[in-house]
Structures are given as C-alpha cells and as structure tokens.
Specification:
This protein has helices spanning about 25-30, 35-50, 80-85, 90-110, 110-120, 125-135, 145-155, 160-165, 180-205, 210-220, 225-250, 255-265, 270, 275-285, 290-315; strands at about 1-5, 10. It is an all-alpha fold.
C-alpha cells in the first residue's frame, strides 16, 4: 500500500507477526509419534534388562556377598574389598596388561578402518566395491573360537607357516605361544575380525561429504592427495574424533573371550586383563564381591577416560560424544 506524504512517497508493507512456538501436550505428542515409540520399545527393554538392572548388583562390591543368603542379608564390608584389591599384585599386573594391550590396539588398530574406508571410497566400480565390502565384513560374524582356530591353523606349531618352514629346512616361528609378541597377535586377530565392520561408520561419513567440493577442487587443479587432505579428512574429522572418544572410553575393555581362550597358551602374567581377573579371581573362586569390586573400579576409570576424551574433543572444536 502506497501513501503519499507531501512530496515523498513512503511504501508501507504489512508483515505477519512470527508465530509463537506451541508446545504440544505429551499425550498429543505420544499419539503423534506412536509408531516410532512402539519401534523403540524392544531396544529400551533390552537396555533396561541388560544394562541398567544389573547396576543393582554393584552393591555386592561393598559386601561379603553370599549367594545363599542374597544381597539383603549378606554382611556389609564397606571399602574392604577395594583395600584388598589395591594390595593385590595380580590386580596391578592385570591393569598393566589392560593398558598395554589397549595402547597397542589404539595405535595399530584404530587407523586401519579409516584407511580401508578411504581406499574403498576410491573404487569406482560399485559392484567391485560391494564385493570388497562383503569380504571384509565377513569375519565380524565369526566367533572368537573360530577366529583363534583360524590363526592356530595358520600360525600355530603345526600350522601352515611352520610346516612351510620345516619343508624348506628353516627354523620354526613360535607365534601363538610367544608372550613377547602376544600384544601384536591379539591386535592382528582384532584387525582381521573387526576392521571391516568398523569401516561402516566412516563410509557413512564419506557419503555425507558434498561431491561438489571435489569437483570444484579438481577444477582448481587439486590432485587426489590434496582433495583427500583438504576435503575428505576434514569432512571425516568429526566422526573420527567421536569414534576415538568411544574407543578411549572402552580402553579398559579388551576382548574378554579372545584372551580367555588364549590365556593357557601364554600364561596369566601376559594374558590376564581386568575382565579375566574379575572372572578368575572373583566368579571362579566364588569371591563375587572381590570380582564386583574389580569391575566397579574398571567402570569408574572408564567413565573418567571417556569424560576426559570428550573434554579433549571439545578443546579441538569438535562435538565429541556430548556437549556440556
């Protein structure tokens, strides 16, 4: 609408006021999202039954727990189980093995899924890419028993490698029972079994990168290495940091079944970690409170590690696992 005021013309426009956000009642939202809520019920039930309900058992770490009388009637021990724990040299040996194995796997294992995802992303043929993905995914579905059996058949005393060395009059190579190379052995087993499955998240991060950025960089004369360094890796940085935070949070959780199966071959001084320590010196000896104390110690340290790693991610400008 135009209004003439003296010699000047002023154009007046009518704007609609912004609509206020209306907060819906929870019953309305529940009715609206009913199908989504129903889909999440099985996951919530599994989470409650297997992750939250067992937290009640942590009270046994402060008791002399007796399964015959139950939690409510077992005598109270206070912090005595933890005092015994910190004075146990086997516990400190298990903690040292846990940290060492976690460090080796963090250095040697964590970068491999990222590299595999980058290599797969360069394969132009979709059929070939899907075939390679299927091959590298497959070991994830093998049990640890089968995985260790495969390594035993290949690297064991009567395995393919040593048979080949004997046929050529060369000395045999002790790998499966060598305590000095045990960390490299379990890391290679984890890489063979889980590296292919670990690339799924990184492939999703690569798919989210805008392809127009690569086209613009190619027009500007950037080669493949420059495109990877200035576009691909920065586009994956948030996911890499997130996975690193999760990895550090689980640093004290080293494959329980994997080490349990190989403990007899290399000895408890080499293969015992916090999880196997809790099993052998807690559950196996009917000293449930002692095992619970070791498990609670590991959980608290893991919580501190994931908190510290998340703070470090924030310091580098990434979201990490959560904000706050």
């Amino acid at each position: 609408m135009t209004t003439i005021i003296g010699p000047k013309t002023e154009t007046q426009t009518t704007r609609k006021p912004p609509q206020a956000h209306v907060k819906l009642h929870w019953r309305i939202r529940l009715r609206r999202d009913k199908s989504l809520v129903i889909m999440t019920i099985p996951a919530i039930v599994l989470l409650v039954v297997f992750n939250y309900a067992p937290l009640f058992g942590l009270i046994t770490a402060f008791q002399y727990y007796d399964p015959l009388v139950g939690v409510w009637h077992s005598p109270w021990a206070g912090l005595e189980q933890f005092a015994t724990l910190v004075q146990d040299p086997l516990f400190w040996s298990a903690l040292q093995n846990t940290l060492y194995l976690s460090l080796v796997q963090l250095i040697l294992f964590f970068p491999i899924p990222v590299v595999l995802a980058l290599l797969l992303n360069t394969v132009l043929s979709e059929r070939l890419r899907n075939l390679i993905q299927s091959i590298v995914y497959l070991p994830h579905f093998f049990s640890w028993v089968l995985t260790i059996t495969v390594f035993q058949q290949m690297l064991g005393g009567a395995g393919v490698l040593n048979q080949f060395l004997r046929q050529h009059d060369a000395g045999t190579w002790d790998i499966m029972t060598n305590s000095n190379t045990f960390a490299l052995l379990v890391t290679s087993q984890a890489v063979w079994k889980e590296a292919g499955w670990g690339i799924i998240v990184f492939l999703a991060a690569l798919a989210a990168i805008d392809t127009h950025l690569y086209e613009a960089a190619a027009v500007d004369g950037a080669g493949s290495w420059r495109r990877m360094w200035h576009i691909t890796l920065p586009g994956m940085r948030g996911v890499i940091v997130l996975m690193l935070v999760l990895r550090l949070g689980n640093a004290l959780t080293v494959g329980f079944e994997q080490l349990l199966l190989q403990r007899a071959a290399v000895g408890h001084n080499t293969a015992d970690v916090l999880d196997t320590f809790s099993f052998y010196y807690g559950i196996a000896t009917n000293n449930y409170s002692y095992g619970a104390a070791a498990g609670l110690f590991k959980s608290v340290i893991s919580l501190l590690l994931i908190w510290g790693a998340n703070k470090l991610a924030h310091a580098f400008g990434e979201d990490g696992l959560y904000r706050g």
